Amino acid sequence: MTDLTAELVVDGRAPQTPVLAPNGRLLCYALAPTSRTGTHLDTELWLASTDPTNTPAPDTASRRVTADTSTESQPRWSADSDTLFFLSDRADRGTPQVHKLTLTDGTTTALTSWRAGVTGHVPLADPNLLALLAEDEPAEQEARFTDDRDDAIVVGECEPRARLRLLDLSTGRVTTPDVFSDRHVVELRQRPDGGPLAVLTQAGADNDYGPRTGRLHLFDLTSGTAVDLGPAGVEAHSLAWWPDEDGWHLGYIALTPPGLQAGTAVFDLAVDSRVLRNRTSGLPMCPTELRQTGAAPLVVFANGLNTTLARLDPIGPTTLSQHPGRLDDLTTTPTGEVIAALTGTRYEPANVHVGPPVGPLRKITDTRPELKGITFGTQRPLAYRAADGLDLDGLLVLPVGRTASDGPFPLVTIPHGGPYDRYADRCQLFWFPSAQWLAAAGYAVFLPNPRGGEGHGHQFAARVAGRVGQEEWTDILTGIDLLITEGIADPDRLGIAGWSHGGFMSAWAVGQTDRFRAALVGAGVVDWGMLAATGENGQFEAALGGSTGWSGIGPHPHDAVSPISFASRIRTPVLILHGAEDTNVPLGQAVYLHRALRHFGVEHEFVIYPREGHSIRERAHQLDVMRRTRAWFDRRLRP
């Protein structure tokens, strides 16, 4: 048996964005390291055969097809499956350009040299055309700055916008159609018959305002003209076309109106009549991906702890297969007869699996062979009811080598982020506070899915709008009490940890009760009003907190659900971890909690990670998070 070390976790590599060739015989994916050691994240492109008759074992079935040190992403196939287009910054790190890999001779060619870099690309039915998403190139005078330049930033002026551009592969010329005014282009999808492009735009690129301003357009490649189809839902994404009796339909996934804290839904726009319908209304599941085929599109649903794959038929979603845990980054051939996706098991991280939509799926990659000798803690699903009768679920991970009858154990509860996220029944091993990392040190770990999360439909998700920390918190407490009653958790050795919204729940918990002997607040929210004012998702945070500072003279509703309002009650030792350059939950949130705890004389440790954002990326910092997390709980729960 091999011991689980922090190095084993952070030095892993994971497949990303698998893409099936149209003929279904090959699949390309990006291979990305868990951590970064330099300034840039170095990724690679790999090819794998999908033919079950000649595919060797997964650990030898793939081959790397690029050799340069660079960040490589967004593999896209030509219609004839002979050419692979992708983004790479090999020529100028941090500035991705479109490259072409010809499979017949293995040659790679750079196709663009756009100074602002290319952010997206879509091969079109016309083999000589490639649609690009790219910001405007810097003006010539801006490229010749002097030391005494005026570089004042005027908010609202000259803000970056991704625009639709067309690359003529025969000439190498890039043109920019004069359409969509000054709107930011988010996503493109060509009609399966080679017709117009569906284009999703926003008024701006910033996360606070942009996602609420989506519009759909049709762009005619022949005439160069566009038609406005009207507004799109909040946070619209995942465009897909399909034919029906009344003509072409265009679908997407977006938040269910009217709130910003809401479950997702599949919206269906009949292009000719402009009739828009919610095709998943009332379902106890949440759509996460919509994938275009030549006929009815495929829909991935988060369904409790697991995943459902369905076909969007005229009468509604038709279930095709059920999958344990998660099913991510779904890709399909144009006919929809073969699919591939990222999925794993309770004790194996996600790999690329391929097969028919009705299943089963066959693993064709093995990117974490170093974990084969690791013994993990037993993981099992939990189902229970909240105090008000709402059905809830979650996961329990037992200490490695122990059974439930060996309890009670020290228990660490780890609320998930979001809050519109979920724990799925997959391998729980990550650089941030994770169940298997703590289980290897002798802890039982509770992973709750309280209301507000994904996987149980719109109403379940919408229940925390303006009420974070209320019933959401009692949902978690009910689960902890259940584990105490079952003899699994030691009531005198309870800890709580979380990142992002999970960090909020940790900060909230220690202001509500003294039951926890140790807490970890990672990138956590402590003041919703301040977050609405300074975070990159301000309006979303205001929906969670219930108000903003400009809502009139206080006290405000968000004060009653902000952990900082209860700082005088905290007696639990708190470990605060935060990235110095976090724009999602800015560092000021952690500083605020640190100063309050210092003021009230509460034992705590405050760690700031330079150069890091909302997620910690540098290898040394990830190692520190993992080791510091276990040491913090060891000192207080395992004396």
UniProtKB/TrEMBL annotation:
<keyword id="KW-0645">Protease</keyword>
<dbReference type="GO" id="GO:0004252">
    <property type="term" value="F:serine-type endopeptidase activity"/>
</dbReference>
<dbReference type="GO" id="GO:0004177">
    <property type="term" value="F:aminopeptidase activity"/>
</dbReference>
<keyword id="KW-0378">Hydrolase</keyword>
<keyword id="KW-0031">Aminopeptidase</keyword>
<dbReference type="InterPro" id="IPR011042">
    <property type="entry name" value="6-blade_b-propeller_TolB-like"/>
</dbReference>
<feature type="region of interest" description="Disordered">
    <location>
        <begin position="49"/>
        <end position="76"/>
    </location>
</feature>
<dbReference type="Pfam" id="PF07676">
    <property type="entry name" value="PD40"/>
</dbReference>
<dbReference type="Pfam" id="PF00326">
    <property type="entry name" value="Peptidase_S9"/>
</dbReference>
<feature type="domain" description="Peptidase S9 prolyl oligopeptidase catalytic">
    <location>
        <begin position="435"/>
        <end position="637"/>
    </location>
</feature>
<keyword id="KW-0720">Serine protease</keyword>
<protein>
    <submittedName>
        <fullName>Dipeptidyl aminopeptidase/acylaminoacyl peptidase</fullName>
    </submittedName>
</protein>
<dbReference type="InterPro" id="IPR011659">
    <property type="entry name" value="WD40"/>
</dbReference>
<dbReference type="InterPro" id="IPR029058">
    <property type="entry name" value="AB_hydrolase_fold"/>
</dbReference>
<dbReference type="GO" id="GO:0006508">
    <property type="term" value="P:proteolysis"/>
</dbReference>
<feature type="compositionally biased region" description="Low complexity">
    <location>
        <begin position="49"/>
        <end position="60"/>
    </location>
</feature>
<dbReference type="InterPro" id="IPR001375">
    <property type="entry name" value="Peptidase_S9_cat"/>
</dbReference>
<feature type="compositionally biased region" description="Polar residues">
    <location>
        <begin position="67"/>
        <end position="76"/>
    </location>
</feature>
